[in-house]
Amino acid sequence: MLHGLNPSLKLAGLIIITAGILIYPSWRFSSLLLILTILGFKVSNVPLDVSKRRIRFLVAFSALLFVFQVLMTANGTILFFIIPKYDLMGPFLPVTDFGIGKGLEMSLRFLLVVFSSMLFVSVTDPTLLAHSLTRLRIPYRYSFALVIALRFLPLFDMENKTVRIAQRSRGISISVRGMSRILRSIRYTFFPLLVSALSRVDALSLSMDGRGFGHSRTRTYLRKSCWTALDSAVLVLLSTLLLASILLTLGFLPQMSAII
Amino acid sequence: MLEVHDVSFSYDNENMILDSVNFQIRRGEITVITGPTGSGKSTLALVLAGFIPRVIEGTFTGSLLIDGENVENDLISEIARKVALVQQDPESQICTLLVSDEVAFGPENYSLAPSEIRKRVEVSLNAVESSHLTNRPTYALSGGEKQRVTIASMLAGKPDFLLLDEPSASLDPKGIQQLRKALLGLKNSGYGILCIEHRLETILPIADRVLQLSQSEISKWSGKTSSTKTTPVEHFRRPDSAEPLLMAKGVSYSYGTISAVRDVTLSVYPGEIVALMGDNGSGKSTLVSLLAGLLQSTEGTTYIEGVSSIEMTAQDVAARVAVVFQNPNHQIFERTVQREQYLVFDVLDSLDEVPSERPEEILLAAGLADLKERNPFSLSHGQKRRLNVSSVTVHEPLVYLFDEPFIGQDEIGRNFITQAIRKRGESGGAAILVTHDSAVATSLCNRIIFMERGSVLLDGPPKIVLDRLREIGYGEYADLGVMS
Question: In chain B, where are the structural domains located?
Answer without folding.
Answer: 2-220, 246-479
